[in-house]
Amino acid sequence: MAKTIQAIRGMNDCLPNEVGAWQLVERHLRELAQSYQYHEIRTPVVESTDLFKRSIGEVTDIVEKEMYTFDDRNGDSLSLRPEGTACCVRAGNEHGLLYNQQQRLWYMGPMFRHERPQKGRYRQFHQFGAEAYGFEGPDIDVELIMMGARLWKAFGIQDKVELQINSLGSGEARAAYKEKLIAFLLTVEEQLDEDSKRRLHTNPLRVLDSKNPDTQRAIADAPRLIDHLDEASKIHFDKVCAQLTALGVSFVVNPSLVRGLDYYNRTVFEWVTDMLGAQGTICAGGRYDGLVEQLGGKASPAIGFAMGIERLVLLIEATQDTQLLNTAPDVFITALGEISQTPAMLLAEKVRDAHPSLRVLMHCGGGNMKKQMKKAGGSGAKLAIIIGEAEIEQKMYGVKYLQEDKPQQQFSEVDLIKLLSQMN
Q1: Percentage with pLDDT > 90 across the chain
Q2: Which of 86, 123, 327, 359 could form a disulfide with 20 if both were Cys (CB 3.0 to 4.6 A apart)?
Q3: CA-atom Rg of the chain in angstroms
């Protein structure tokens, strides 16, 4: 017997009994984007490696250690996309969507990073992202944060997440701050973990975001970037905080929040939870005003966020009634005997025509009454429609309630269609 082939480590199947939660999340995300008038963009999963080196930064963990990179037959270096923002900017520049324009865009799909798989962090993972271009003021920062706040309310998890925000200031202010930070880090270098020592000169802001407890204790007295902002960035950040407060959104200013990608400036934010263990960030983003020009376009202010769908699904499954994730059929239609198969199929199609939102499961494969009703009960359907030779002769259909203590009833086709309207 041939050896069974299994999925690649960290790249998971989503099985039918798991898909309900994904469909629920995806539906809400599409509705959220539509309600804020963000428009979908779809980009390839494979891009030029240079796109990510120029945008994310060559000394980031993603580019150094995590990208799936290969040479194609022409010798060009290609990579599976590790995130969506750079792809969105590339597409916007290439197709003339960004220069001197305002755009609100969203995307959803798989991303790829070669890192150690664990719960909520996989090598193929899925993200929803929203990006806004051509908006300079703090109001668009607040709008993107509000999209997250609205989504958590829709899922009833608003008390399970916390908003953390910070400002990284301008590139010039950040460069001056880095010098002060490096000078401090050199005084505690021996207490830093190996990753932080490696980043000390190449990407010192990432040391602030270290998850190592010993490193966090060593840098407790490090100078704070938020205390070294340029005046324009400080005013911008104060307005973001004021608007969030006016809108009733609770937040925590986290001076250590820097994000892992080089292109961020000014406002950065994360929505975090303590219900998923180490992988507590479910949505994160910020401004990247220099990225459009950095990737060859005309300068344009920009901001966006991305949320991990796997983590959001895990959080919803951990906190919600399973009925919310129900994908069971509403109606199970039986066909007793060969003579009943065609009439049963016809009725199933008429029900779908009349009530497109109903989930209708047609029994196929024959079997006696007992066998079919056992399948009906196990399907989770609310009721079963029974069609046999007697029902066909009488032009009446039997209805058995599977979830309620009601006697079996007979209905004409017209009355049955009316009955099913109550299930919509």
Answers
A1: 44
A2: 327
A3: 27
Return the closest-CA partner of residue 105 out of 40, 60, 149, 172: 40
Average model confidence (pLDDT) across the chain: 87
pLDDT above 70 for 61: no
Q: How far is CA 193 from CA 63, 179, 184, 189, in A?
A: 20, 20, 15, 9
For 362, the token pair is 């047609």
Which pTM value belongs to this model? 0.83
Strand order in the sheet with 77-80: 46-48, 77-80, 69-71
The residues, ordered by sequence, that sit 6+ positions from 356 with a Cβ below 8 Å of its Cβ are none
pLDDT value at residue 62: 63
CB < 8 Å & 24+ apart, contacts of 142-148: 142/240, 142/243, 142/244, 142/247, 143/36, 144/285, 144/303, 144/304, 144/305, 145/244, 145/249, 145/269, 146/247, 146/249, 147/32, 147/36, 147/305, 148/271, 148/283, 148/305, 148/307
Helix H, strand E, coil C: the string for the chain is CCCCCCCCCCCCCCCHHHHHHHHHHHHHHHHHHHHCCCEECCCCCEEEHHHHHHHCCCCCHHHHHHCCEEECCCCCEEEECCCCHHHHHHHHHHCCCCCCCCEEEEEEEEEECCCCCECCECCEEEEEEEEEECCCCHHHHHHHHHHHHHHHHHHCCHHHCEEEEEECCCHHHHHHHHHHHHHHHHHCHHHCCHHHHHHHHHCCHHHHCCCCHHHHHHCCCCCCHHHHCCHHHHHHHHHHHHHHHHCCCCCEECCCCCCCCCCCEEEEEEEECCCCCCCCEEEEEEECCCHHHHCCCCCCCEEEEEEEHHHHHHHHHHHCCHHHHCCCCCEEECCCCHHHHHHHHHHHHHHHHHCCCCCEEECCCCCCHHHHHHHHHHHCCCEEEECCHHHHHHCCEEEEECCCCCCCEEECHHHHHHHHHCCC
pLDDT score, position 213: 83
Tokens of 276: 């998923």
Residue 210 makes CB contacts below 8 A (sequence gap 6+) with 192, 193, 195, 196, 216, 219
Q: Which residues of 222-248 are buried (b: 16+ CB within 10 A; e: fewer)?
A: beebbebbbeebbebbebbbebbeeee
